[in-house]
Amino acid sequence: MSDRTPPPDGLVIVDKPSGFTSHDVVAKMRGIAKTRKVGHAGTLDPMATGVLVLGVERATKLLGHLALTEKEYLGTIRLGQNTLTDDAEGELISSTDASGVAREAIDAGIAKLSGDIMQVPSKVSAIKINGVRSYKRAREGEEFEIPARPVKVSSFAVYDVRDAVAEDGTPVLDLVVSVVCSSGTYIRALARDLGAGLGVGGHLTALRRTRVGPYKLDSARTLDQLQESLTVMPVAEAAAAAFPRWDVDERRGKLLLNGVRLEVPEEYAGAGPVAVFGPDDQFLALVEESKGKAKSLAVFG
């Protein structure tokens, strides 16, 4: 008979280090939490740091729904240079003196990339084209196009514009920016498109994700801190923070768990995933309204 403590059940908010892939972080967390059942809610590029939401055990069932929430970033865009990957990790492909670019032109360029826009993801991204990852096609030297897709940039602000000189001697401008955007938005594609619109090229040199949905950097822990003391947000708390809450009595809770499609109160119609709680704050299920009834997305009760 094993007396091993069962793995924790919940979300872990990691402050991802630079140089790690999201998969590297998941692998590390499997070791820390002593379970194979770990997943992430949306990747973060190896160069980037900041909030990466992991689910452990039953919380993995929340991840697909959390991945769709709004995200917030702080980053640095270098105007004057293009790279193969649209970030600092890629090979330099062009340099242009950007010292003459006016602030008004930068602001106008940013305005064009704000709101509901169509964006072409970077070729070195995880997007699948006919079942094959885009980065794999790009590494093999294949010529291909990625279709533009709709994304929402709720806020794109410049905090600082700094004159700099690149390693090859080109005068460049470094913009410190913050971006709030929908899931699926590529910040390096914003950097690329801003530079292209200004005629000097651009790429991302630093990126830090400060928020995923309701989960912010102040609740994130580094891998070293988690190794010392594993901080897990219980599934119920995580669901209450991320989704609208619908409280039901014991009878309706049992019906719901037995597969009965209850009528959903009007306030939750079209709200996306809704967290259903029974008596004593028990998290029962994640549902969404479909034709006025509760359709189960994941059951926890």
Automatic annotation (TrEMBL):
GO MF terms, alphabetically ordered: tRNA pseudouridine(55) synthase activity
Catalytic activity: uridine(55) in tRNA = pseudouridine(55) in tRNA
Domain Pseudouridine synthase II N-terminal: 31-187
Top-level EC class: isomerase
UniProt-listed InterPro entries: PsdUridine_synth_cat_dom_sf, PsdUridine_synth_N, PUA-like_sf, PUA_sf, tRNA_psdUridine_synth_fam2_C, tRNA_psdUridine_synth_TruB, TruB_C
tRNA pseudouridylate synthase B C-terminal domain boundaries: 188-231
Keywords: Isomerase, tRNA processing
Entry annotation: catalytic residues: 45
tRNA pseudouridine synthase II TruB subfamily 2 C-terminal domain boundaries: 243-300
E.C. no: 5.4.99.25
Keyword Isomerase: yes
Protein function: Responsible for synthesis of pseudouridine from uracil-55 in the psi GC loop of transfer RNAs.
Protein family membership: Belongs to the pseudouridine synthase TruB family. Type 1 subfamily.
PANTHER family from the UniProt entry: PSEUDOURIDYLATE SYNTHASE TRUB1, TRNA-PSEUDOURIDINE SYNTHASE
Protein name: tRNA pseudouridine synthase B
Organism this protein belongs to: Streptomyces endophyticus
